[in-house]
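Regression test case RT-17, inverse folding.

Input:
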C-alpha cells in the first residue's frame, strides 16, 4: 500500500512511500521506493522542527500562501511543502 501524502525524508520525493513495519517504539516506519531508505515520520517533529510545524500551521490558518510562509520563516518552499504534507497526513 502506498502512502500518497508522505514525502521522503532523504530524497524529498512525494508519493513513492510505502509502510515498512514498525519501530520498537511502535512508531510507523516508511520505505521510499525510489531511494530504498527508511524513515520515521516522528523524526520531523523532534527539536525545533516542532515549532516550525506549528508556525506553518498557524500561518496557513491565517490564510498566508506557501511562498509568504517560506519567506517569513526563512524555510525553503520544499521544506514548507514537506511540513504541509505531514500536517495533512496527521489530520487524517
Ligand atoms: Zn527517497
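Golden output:
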Amino acid at each position: 500500500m502506498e502512502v500518497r501524502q508522505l514525502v521522503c525524508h532523504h530524497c524529498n520525493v512525494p508519493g513513492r512511500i510505502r509502510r515498512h513495519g514498525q519501530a520498537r517504539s511502535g512508531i510507523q516506519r516508511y520505505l521510499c521506493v525510489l531511494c530504498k531508505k527508511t524513515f520515521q515520520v516522528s523524526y520531523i517533529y523532534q527539536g525545533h522542527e516542532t515549532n516550525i510545524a506549528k508556525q506553518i500551521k498557524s500561518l496557513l490558518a491565517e490564510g498566508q500562501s506557501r511562498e509568504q510562509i517560506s519567506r517569513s520563516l526563512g524555510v525553503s518552499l520544499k521544506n514548507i511543502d514537506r511540513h504541509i504534507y505531514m500536517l495533512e497526513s496527521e489530520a487524517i
